Amino acid sequence: MQKIRVLFFSIFLVFAFVLFLHEGFTEDSRRWHLPEGARARLGKGSPTDVQFSPDGTQIAVASTIGIWLYDAQTDQETNLLTDHRRGIRSCAYSPDGTVLAGGGTDGTVLLWDVNTGQLVTTLKGHERWVITLAFSPDGKTLASGADYEDIVQLWDVATAQHRATFTGHTEGIRTVVFSPDGRTLASGSRDGTIRLWDVVTGEHNVILVGSQVLTVAFSPDGKTLVNGDRGNRIQLWDMDTRQPRWSFIEPTQIVSAVAFSPDGTLLASESENDAIRLSDADTGQQRAILTAHTRPIRSLVFSPDSRTLVSVSEDDTVRLWDVGIQRGPITVDSQLKATFHAYPTFVTALAFSSDGRTLVSGSEDGVLRLWNTDTAEQQGSVFVDDKRWVRAAAFLPDGGTFISAGYDGTVRFWNTTGEKRPPLALQDLFTVGTAFSPDGRILASENEHSTISLWDLTTGEHRAALEGHIHWVKVLAFSPDGKTLASGGGDSAILLWDVSTGQHRATLGKQDSTQGRRDDVYALAFSSDNKTLARGGAYGPIQLWDANTQQRLSTLRGHTGEVDALAFSPDGGTLASGSWDGTILLWDATAFLTDEPQDSPTAILKGHAGDVIHLVFSPDGGTLASGSSDGTILLWEITSVLTQTASDVNGDGIVNILDLTFVASSFGENSPDLNGDGVVNILDLVLVAQYITE
Questions:
Q1: Backbone angles phi, psi at 351, to 5 degrees
Q2: What is the pTM of this model?
Q3: Mean pLDDT value across residues 483-503
């Protein structure tokens, strides 16, 4: 009995100690609500929509990873609402500010409690992205619409039950909004119409716009409805007569965002050159032009006091504008107050420095960013290519220089203070397939003719043209010793090339020239000993090949989507795979010795809300960086991940107090030795307790 009391007292002390450590540190937003196994999040995801809380104290920014909440006074983030599974395309506050609705990329509508940050319920009624949401003025009803779906759904907020489906549109819904009195719901569609629905009966009238309707808004008094459309036109409609009051053509391609100020005096709309036009709401006279965005506007909203305008753009920034309180007859005093949430959509390149303390990332906005992997802070950024898309990035072996390749065919050399030597302008455009050799002396790139070019980065000369693929080339990978280049793409096969001679060495698999769906090659990775080549493709299973004998070794099945990323750990013991299904699987690479399928990964990492498109291990193998189309990079503690899996010592599928008891009762034995020091002791108990608290 005494031994049992001591045992449980030890467990209690360890558990309390680890819990104290866990709660004792203040985490910043880079570590908020991280998925299991991750230690930091770099980036916030691409912003898609924005709303002010009804009391004006909070700003909600919908993004590709969830909804970020900001303090409207300090512009600082205060919370992240996420479920790690889906991005959010639209958001809306309930009139009392207690509920925040988010439209999911999977067709769901999510309702969060604003005060607690807890997900209250998930509504399922759409198949496509929910791009528009609106609460009725009394807060009892929520309307939702999904892109490429021609229906509007109504939900009872209190019961989270479906109330009604409005049918009548013939193409996808782009926008919904309630009239101020709550009697009418306006919906705009790709079919070129605005439909005005009686909320009680479901009957509706039609306003024929002609071009695809992208956005609508009611004036505060409900007497006017404004719309923007794909015909770059803004129209104001009299709600009594249903006739146009006035309209004008914007010299831009589309008008996808409009908003009335709550005091009814201003109309904000998307204008030419990615600017925002402020007009007099009654006369249409221009009051001001707000310029700072570099791509089209996605969303506009005024603060409740009408003094601040917030804009979201496809340039992945959220900007706050002070539109002043003096409404003069000619212009509005306006200026940019703040810019936040400035992060790209796609991560297009990732590489660790030789010491593992710096990570460089490239993105679709043509910018390279340097990250401190210890603090997860951004150290700096450099602009690479005004034609967007950083195609590849790598650190040179000296650890202090990194190189990048942009879409425009230019290779640049950088250090932490800026460009180190003149760039190389190679006579090519770098498309999807681009890779640097391990020593940074050779660049391999695919051109539009399915030919691979090898470039000498010391001289800038073209070394060789590798011809053999019969369709486009998507992915290129050098072996760690730099002697072999593997290529794959639209013909389903892998071609191996001798880098020194440019000669074709072997073809792995059969080339497919059919016009139907092929098992295209999307990802390639060599093991650290150059012997094993992993291949990911369109159908999901991963193939392992012996690079020397060209024999198939194994097939790994576990992903439910296309595999876009592969990486071997430096010690060759682990293979990481990333997929369109949003998951990362870790595989035991020491078992790749048979042609029998292996269906059991050693760990499953879930945390990205988009496709996993880049994976790279740190030089010591302790960290895995994953880049996603959700606009974020996650840093995973591989040792911790594998330990967490091992922490289920009693094999019941969950880590809990029973596992603590099991470890404590095994003190002095050699199993379960979680930390690998040869004996079960208090250190193993700490590992299990820490996992439980996390």
A1: -160, 140
A2: 0.85
A3: 95
